[in-house]
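queue> holo job accepted (S-adenosylmethionine)
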Amino acid sequence: MKKGEIYTGIVEKVDFPNKGILHIEDEKVVVKNVLPGQTVEVVVTKQKTGKCEARLLNVVSRAACETPERACVHAADCGGCSYQTLPYEEQLKLKEEQVKGLLDEVIRGEYQYDGIKASPLTSSYRNKMEFSFGDEVKDGPLALGMHKRGSFYDIVTVDQCLLVHEDCCRILRATLDYFKEKNVSFLKKTSHRGYLRHLLVRRGMRTGEILADLVTTTQTADSWAGKETEEELLEGWKQILLALPLSGSFAGILHTKNDSLADAVLNDGTDVLYGQDYFYEELLGLKFKITPFSFFQTNSLGAEVLYDTVRQYIGDTSGQKVFDLYSGTGTIAQILAPVAEHVTGVEIVEEAVEAARENAALNGLSNCDFIAGDVLKVLDMLEEQPDLIVLDPPRDGIHPKALPKIIRYGVDRMVYVSCKPTSLARDLIVLQAGGYRVERMALVDMFPFTGHVETVVLLSKGEVDSKKIRVEFSLEDMDMSEFQDGATYTQIKDYVLEHSGLKVSNLYISQIKRKCGIEVGKNYNLPKSEDSRQPMCPPEKEKAIREAFKYFGMI
Ligand SMILES: C[S@@+](CC[C@H](N)C(=O)[O-])C[C@H]1O[C@@H](n2cnc3c(N)ncnc32)[C@H](O)[C@@H]1O
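queue> job finished
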């Protein structure tokens, strides 16, 4: 096989989350955005011995299980969903095969598999959407929606998106029409000039309360054709939204300023244009206050299924002290608190911790405490000994140095909730090496039409009496090959992309490693001669790389 050449083959399987595998001329080819059983035409983009990467050009024939129709009118272009032609039952089957296949490779011994639980809603299930401003083609009219499949620059206007409530589509359409008419510029990724960045819409599934937040730069000069001040422009937008016929009602209309280079919805300061900067949602009979930038499960009804599974797996909590690590706005803590003796939540985002405290008070729960900080550090300060632990870390999983601290508590049962099976697999290796065994596992589909799924695992201490046996555990005892030297270049790149939206090269990572005094292969990525010029890592990317180093405990 050769780079740039076109080949046809049948997709054998799709590994989590979106990695199609086919064999052509005895070589393994990896291609995204395909389904098992499809015959596809691909062009080779990267050639390595034994493994090629390719880009999909054309689906020559569909898989037997596919439907002829796409569910959504935007499906051909929008990069948001990947399973538009698969009936929902087939989506569940595929996710189950992928995740079980991956985890069964690392799980030792027998366990009870409780199957995949479907999302109660398969459309309009999201309570949050972040739309980006841009254009569909270079220098085209203003667009507002999702990134075009496979494109970093082009945006598809998704005004009939099936994942959100019709109210959110109405807000999108009205916002786009208003700023188009006013001829307002959007932030160009290449020149970093322009005003409009994102529209964040959150809508409580049970309460119907809506929060709309317009994210812009502070570049107001020459960013629109008219003579309005920024205040007047935003007042006009607010009035348009308030006049919309919606089934829900606005809790708040906000304006957030963000001048960062990163393509992520970040917050440099938020002004309330109408109402308040939070809304309420209800889950399992409890009320939760949610602020624009704190974590809250995006599928409210799916979250009830997820939390119910956690409650069932953790078992009897009466008279027990529970740690809810990575607690967000305190949802799991509060669902367990009515029965438990005490629940301690630990969460890194202060805004979420404040909301968790308010939520607990609102729900009349006085036996929960929430601590703001990094789990890695907070565990050293906590004097309380838990009886049970719930872990619900972000996509990257648990920090490798936090895992031994968690294991050392020696609790009888832990429940691990994961949105990324690959990081769960990595952490399960360590947890099993620390004396835990997987007792039960279930999948909960919170993301119909996409490749994502939540996994819930019950870990138990098995036969070991944790009160009598002190677990001697150190990083050296564990298989930490994945974390040698902190993290691989790919892990650092993935972390930076996910957390700041920036793409960084091996060259930039090695430059910052040298600056931080971290060992780098002696000549790795050094210029070939003294006068050869290498691009230098820009400050914004340096900051993001340093944050990744910190996360992986490298500095
Ligand atoms: C998947 S969310 C789970 C939140 C919550 N359990 C829920 O269901 O709503 C992960 C949470 O971990 C928090 N987080 C990320 N890194 C952290 C760290 N190092 N220490 C503490 N919390 C962290 C995030 O801010 C986020 O709220």
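queue> The first helix runs from residue 88 to 104.
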